[in-house]
Specification:
This protein is an alpha+beta fold. The protein is built from 8 helices and 11 strands. The strands form 3 sheets. Strands 4, 5, 6, 7, 8, 9 and 11 form a 7-stranded antiparallel β-sheet that branches. It has a two-stranded antiparallel ribbon with strand order 1-10. A two-stranded antiparallel sheet has the order 2-3. InterPro entries: DUF789.
């Protein structure tokens, strides 16, 4: 997704750019008159939305007005931070001797992953998904209709470079922010096939690391409240699922030692 920066804070712009657009699909019921079922989203299509970003990184325009004139494009590489897939019916991959763990009567844990490697050692998101799908085929074959509402994934966004290259020390420090975004694998779909056949996977939770100054928090805006709300949403989600997300814990530990720059600096 690409959008104008006009009227948008850097944080709002970041959220818009990292939210992939995925195409709805439908299945036709058999019979003399075929009838389309409720639209759904395939997991394969979700991962495909990250393919270009995984290969070439994602550029996000960032205003640096109070540190240097104009704006730069900060590039981020996405990696798979964590994922839990809960299915409506128990599913076991072929050859597996283990039984899926159930959460209630209609939510069964099919697969989970929690990355613990350092950011420099991680493969790009699409590469990691392909690797995991070799054993857990549902990562590519399941659709949102197969999943319960607890299914989610988290993406870690690591800054790698800017164009044009920034040499201002304070600007570089402000741009060195990493993000964790949390997305549902069961986005809300319309009852009938929509005229606009896409859904945007906006994050329901966001956590930041090394956030300082007001590059990402626009003075006089609701950015700070928005950031806090997104962080609380992520924490609440993980708490409800009793999932110890390694990157979340690391980000929160780093935030505890962050010393924000004075406003306007």
């Amino acid at each position: 997704m690409r959008m104008s920066l006009r009227g948008k804070s850097n944080f709002e712009s970041f959220l818009a750019h990292i939210s992939p657009t995925v195409r709805f699909q439908t299945k036709s019921r058999g019979g003399e008159e075929e009838e389309e079922t409720k639209p759904y989203v395939g997991l394969r299509n979700i991962w495909s939305a990250y393919e270009e970003w995984s290969c070439y990184a994602l550029g996000v325009p960032v205003k640096l007005d109070h540190l240097m004139s104009g704006a730069v494009t900060q590039y981020y590489v996405p990696t798979l931070s964590a994922i839990q897939i809960f299915t409506n019916e128990p599913i076991v991959d072929g050859g597996s001797d283990s039984s899926p763990r159930s959460v209630g009567t209609d939510s069964h844990l099919y697969f989970e992953f929690n990355e613990t490697m350092g950011f420099d050692e991680r493969a790009p998101l699409i590469v990691k998904v392909d690797e995991l799908a070799e054993e857990h085929h549902g990562l590519k074959t399941l659709t949102s209709t197969d999943l319960s509402q607890e299914s989610w994934f988290s993406v870690a966004w690591s800054p790698i470079y800017q164009i044009p290259k920034v040499r201002n020390v304070k600007a570089l420090s402000a741009l060195s922010v990493s993000f964790l975004t949390y997305h549902s694998l069961t986005p809300t779909c319309p009852e009938t096939f929509p005229r606009k056949k896409n859904v945007v996977l906006s994050p329901f939770g966001v956590v930041t690391s090394k956030l300082s100054g007001n590059v990402w928090i626009k003075p006089g805006s609701s950015d700070e409240q928005n950031i806090n709300t997104n962080e609380e949403s992520a924490a609440s989600w993980l708490g409800n699922l009793m999932f110890e997300h390694s990157d979340f814990d690391m980000f929160m530990a780093e935030k505890a030692s962050d010393v924000p720059l004075p406003s306007g600096k």
